[in-house]
Every structure is written in C-alpha cells, then in structure tokens.
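Assess this one:
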Amino acid sequence: MKWLGISIPGNLEIELKESEDILKSSLEISKSNFEELFILGNELGIPIGCNIESVSINKKEIEASIKLLYDIKDVMD
C-alpha cells in the first residue's frame, strides 16, 4: 500500500508483518475498521459507505477483495 502513497500506522504495519497470514489479517482488520465506522456513523446519523478495489493481479488477492465485499455487505445489512 505504501507504493500507492498510503500511510500505514507503525503498529498496524508491525501487526501485519508479524501475521502468519497477512491477507487474512488484512481482511479482518479492514472489516473490523469498517464495522466500527459504520456503527458510529449510524449513531451520529452520518451515512457511511466504502469502496473495495483490488490493485493486484494475484488471484488470491482479487478473491479476498470479493470476500471483503460480501463481509462489508453483511455489516451494512
């Protein structure tokens, strides 16, 4: 993500680097972050949405982005 110019907090970078499955951890963190923001947005009356996009040509990563899409949809429903 850094090559895209995205800043990653140091503690998150360490957590991901030390993870046994960085893709799985990344999905869990992304879903958790969205869920927290979505709940807060609902409480404050602020509409919250998201954009899920794969920037990889790796099949496993593309499939993970599709899984995240369904996980986020479940949160929103």
Notes: The mean pLDDT is 91. The radius of gyration is 14 Å. The chain has three helices and no strands.
